[in-house]
Amino acid sequence: MALLKYSLKTNIIKSIFYEIVSNVSSYYYCYGKSEPWATVLDPVTNVIISDENIIEAVVDSSNYESQVRENISYMKLVSSNDAAIVIRRVNWVGGTVYDMFDTYSESHKSTSGKANLSECTFYVLTPDYNVYKCLFNANGAASTVQPTGFSVNKFKTYDGYIWKFMYTIPLYLREKFLTPVWMPVTTSVNSQFYSKGKIIDYIIEDSGDKYEKNTWKVKGINVTNPGVNYTNGDLITFDVSPDVTAQGILIVNNEIGSVDSITVSNSGSGYITIPDSTLNSATGSNLDYAVEFMPGTTTEGSQWTELIVTGDGFNENNPYSLKLTRIEPLEGQRGNFTVQDVSPSTFIWPKPKTSYGYIPIVVPVYREISGNDGHYEIDYIDVINPGYGYTVPLVFGGNVSSTLTGFSCELGTKETQKNEATLLPIIGSNKQIQGIMVLDGGIGYTYANVDAKLYKIVSGIKTEIEEGVTSGPTYKSGFRKARITLKFNVGDLQTKQSGVELVAVNGSVPIVKVLDGGSGYSYDDPITIIGDGKNFNATLSIGTGGSITGVNVTNEGSGYKNIRLLVGAINNGNPINDSVVFYPIISPNGGHGKDAVTELYANTIMFTSRVGLEYIHGVYFSDPLNFRQLSLIKNPIKTNSNIFYRNISGSTTALLTCDIDQALA
Q1: What pLDDT, in 10s, does the model give residues 166-193?
Q2: In this predicted structure, what is the pLDDT of residue 516?
Q3: Which of 302-311, 392-401, 590-599 has the highest mean pLDDT?
Q4: What percent of the chain has pLDDT above 90?
Q5: Do the bridges between strand 574-575 and strand 483-488 make them parallel or antiparallel, or are there none, so unpaired?
């Protein structure tokens, strides 16, 4: 009889999860059966077997599968953020006896009487969402001290338990996948949920229609590495523009010639494609910079396309800058001044964290107070330069103050001040979005949405064109919004779990139990190690009568598959006093903490997704919550072809259109 090992089940789950997050295969939620369940009666008793309230049982048969497939009306791609590997949730509770890591069998059962580690309660989740593995349970005692901390090494609590920190469940996984029954488990170095979250790819589900190609100008030039030996006034030049050519000037303010900032002396205009730049310096080296572009059309009636990113990540080089100021609705807090101080230095800003960042430049604009001649209040605050390089939001009354008194203002919120990743659209000749240029992929994204907006200058105001309107300044005939999904990179070595994974030692021996302490031993007795690894070392704890009460591992060693401890004098390969019985416990493959998914015996994937109205075939599809069958399909194939279907969502239904004869209408 063949044995299906638990590790095979885990590997199958890991393979499926990898296919989803790496886009090797496409899995789809499939919604079907929009019509009510038919009422089915038992032919003998005439009792209702199934109806809308008594759902028929799922059947594992080819006929039932065919029916489910035929009922599918709509499907939605399972994204990398929709799935997580989960394990049974075990909360740490004081006074509980936990099992410990070991290799169990029918002849060697756990404290709870289990013959297989996969059935044991040998890990815990603490209230701060840390997960720990129990390496030693103090010979079956109750756990009374909650494990804490992030040590990459094992640690002992006062109740005698020895624990190993495994990982912390990040906020995003907690919100989507942590339930009273299940908890997510992941590896750090190979998990996007612990990744730096850079946007690296995309899927265009719907290219939209009637978008306009942009012309560009330079918005800013940000220093990412200041370099050395540059001269104040060195130039950055751009490709020649059909209208006005852009240019930047280096500002050098120190003895070693590192670049403090780069001023855009001319933003240029009329660039049809993003222009390349050239740094011109006779002596400087190692300067790196990032160019920010913006649409260069501001004349009445001109149109352009922008991609607006929103999510939990941010622009790595410039996470925050000053994006708005507002005094309204803070009426009564505009101050009362007899002198209109318009100096930019009236505001006191914190220093940017980056050495090459710079503070914002703003000036107050005044208006005369009605009925109080010669007295002024602040009308608004004009942002001359938004600043650069801040890693926290700018808050008036917090890290920002003013030499003026008697007024208050808002400098925006965390959401409005955060600089997102920078994406630029590539518009085809058919006025559809054909691709995306990732200028700055950002950092820290676990989710992100991108909105393809079409703008138009109407009466001098930047106005967004809307889909679905039939008239007015926001209307454009035939305009249809594009739908785009973003993808992120994986892997990060900067997490606490990564530290655990990277220092894990294969074949180490962290725990040696004493099954029988024997007698007649002393502290001076030497310990002889026989095994196939190296560097294991330990000391002994001796009780009354020379009984060995414990083994204190001082070096866990590495590479062991078999190990034996001998104490005292040896004769013909055996100890003269052999009354003690040791039980060494060797770490799992790779070492403790190397692979939490495998070590904690995961065999389940949880899927979760937000459902609602979907835009398919040019119309909004019915609410998926009204469907009665949900299935999961891998790599569906397009109709009448051998090509995999790759769109974000789709329908198995046909869209029929026809022209209406107005004379007959």
Answers
A1: 999 887 788 889 999 999 998 876 554 4
A2: 95
A3: 590-599
A4: 32
A5: unpaired
Dist. CA 350–CA 484, nearest whole Å: 38
For residues 299 and 395, what is the distance between their CA atoms, to the nearest angstrom? Answer: 34
- 409 is written with which tokens? 């203002």
276 touches 218 (CB < 8 A) = no
Helix intervals (H) in 228-292: none
Report angle CA 622, 628, 630 to the nearest 5 degrees. Answer: 95
Position 616 pLDDT exceeds 50? no
In angstroms, rounded to a whole number, what is the distance separating the alpha carbons of residues 550 and 136?
Answer: 12
Residue 276: both structure tokens together: 């390349």
Distance in Å from the first CA to the final CA of the chain: 74
The two tokens of residue 368 are: 């005369």
Residue reference for tokens 């490709």:
239
Distances (CA, A) of 427 to 209, 278, 466: 10, 26, 18
Q: What is the 3-state secondary structure (H, E, C) of 139-151?
A: CCCCECCCCCCCC
User: How far, in Å, CA of 164 to CA of 571, rounded?
Assistant: 38
* Calpha distance 552→509 (Å, rounded): 11
Phi, psi of 468, rounded to the nearest 5 degrees: 95, -15
Q: How confident is the model at residue 525 (pLDDT cuts 50, 70, 90)?
A: very high
Q: What is the mean pLDDT of residues 301-311?
A: 88
Q: Residue 489 corresponds to which tokens in the numbers above?
A: 């990179």
Q: Give the residue from 481, 469, 484 showing the smallest Cα distance to 438.
A: 484
103: closest CA among 4, 7, 185? 7
Q: Assess whether pLDDT exceeds 70 at residue 660.
A: no
Contact (Cβ atoms closer than 8 angstroms) between residue 464 and residue 455: yes
Residue 71 Cα distances to 99, 550, 649, angstroms: 47, 65, 16
List of residues 6+ apart from 391 with CB closer than 8 A: 319, 320, 352, 353, 354
Give the whole-angstrom CA distance, residue 80 versus residue 447: 9
pLDDT, one tens digit per residue, over 200-229 is 778 888 899 999 988 888 888 878 778 888
CA distance 549 to 253: 69
Q: Write down the pLDDT at residue 356.
A: 62
Tell if the pTM clears 0.70, that is, is over it.
Answer: no
Query: Is residue 6 over pLDDT 70?
Result: no
